Amino acid sequence: MRVVSGIQPTGSLHLGNYLGAIKRWVRMQDEADCLFFLADLHAVTVYVEPAELAANVREMAAALIACGIDENRSVLFNHARVPAHPELAWILNCTARIGWLNRMTQFKEKSGKNREGASVGLFAYPVLQAADVLLYQATHVPVGDDQKQHVELIRDIALKFNADYDVDLFTVPEPHIAETAARIMSLRDGYAKMSKSDPSDMSRINLSDDGDSIALKIRKAKTDAEPLPESFDELAYRPEAANLVTIYAALADRTPQSVVEEFAGRGFGAFKPALAEILVETMRPIKQRLDELRSDPGELDQILERGAERAAKLARPTLDSAYKAIGLRRLA
Ligand code: TYM
Q1: Which ligand 1 atom is nearest residue 129's CA?
Q2: Ligand 1 centroid – CA 165 distance (Å)
Q3: Which residue range is the domain that position 64 belongs to?
Q4: 319 assigned to some structural domain
């Protein structure tokens, strides 16, 4: 079992990232061979101030380590330091079809009405994502629900490359999606996912938020006036309520059903303080560790440097084989 996954270093980590992906990454370190990376080459598909990008890479590395990603149990790196990623991405650009990329809903969302003005990189980045995963022969890719379509694309690219060149080179990976927290929604709108790009900071819990702001955001989170029902299924048309119950369940490692049973018949006046408490308790040690790590940027750079060296070694045989399969050779 080989686990590979990544996150874009744009701003800070939010609760959706944590519950949808990172919390499971941390656990998977005990079960599998793991590589986790900061997808900084993805971050430049839209313009980012260079100094800000460099700071975001460090900040996100610190956030992952604070959550429990441990360089002694995983390879942690940023993919700009491992040129095998864009090299393999170019080869895979020649395997992926324009029609496949045209179907990617994230590109449609991110380019919006300005499709012609979007960068080529924004369109093609799911192919770089395929390189990220296929380079390491990943079997499992732990992601939130919004990345499922990209992982399915990776499978199509791997199968087509293997078939076109009549090789058994790429392992076809499985998406690994959380049962409870696959899609954490905004605190202001139960129909929009929690996201770094939402202009309202009140819509998300950031890992760097202190206890008071977490409590405030939960107090102000949109809900309704109804009490909680006996069964989680009854929340199907109350997305904000369902989201808060889901967050509680994911934090407590319980099912949403057991949470509604505990609070059945009570309103959000009773539920929100309990949610704020478990959230603050979970985030406190992570935030504390994050503050310590931030004070030593040199150490963070060294961790990423060591991770990149290990990743580059692991990537090399697959990259060489991909060149060989298409009839070319790289410089040794
Ligand atoms: P990114 O940076 O948008 O998100 C990182 C991880 O967090 C998950 N996630 C969520 N899960 C639940 N609820 C939410 N509201 C929520 N928001 C984000 C994402 O699904 C993801 O797992 N393209 C990727 C990064 C990437 C990658 C890869 C992932 C680059 N190469 C290779 C896997 C494998 C991205 O932009 O994720």
Answers
A1: 31
A2: 31
A3: 2-182+296-325
A4: yes
| Ligand 1 atom at shortest distance from the alpha carbon of 181 | 12
The pLDDT score that the predictor gives to residue 11 is: 76
Residue 87 lies inside a defined structural domain of this protein? yes
pLDDT beyond 90 at 136: yes
Cα–Cα separations (whole angstroms), residue 157 to 112, 131, 233, 249:
25, 10, 37, 36
pLDDT in tens, 229-252: 999 999 999 999 999 999 999 999
Residue 174 CA to residue 244 CA, distance in Å, equals 29
Instruction: State whether 112 and 205 are in the same domain.
Output: no
Other CB atoms within a 10 A radius of the CB of residue 241 amount to: 24
Band of pLDDT at residue 158, cut at 50, 70 and 90? very high
**Pair (218, 69) in one structural domain:** no
* Ligand 1 contact via 43 beta carbon (within 6 Å): no
Q: What total number of domains does the chain contain?
A: 2
Please state, as a whole number, how many other Cβ atoms lie within 10 Å of the Cβ of residue 189. 16
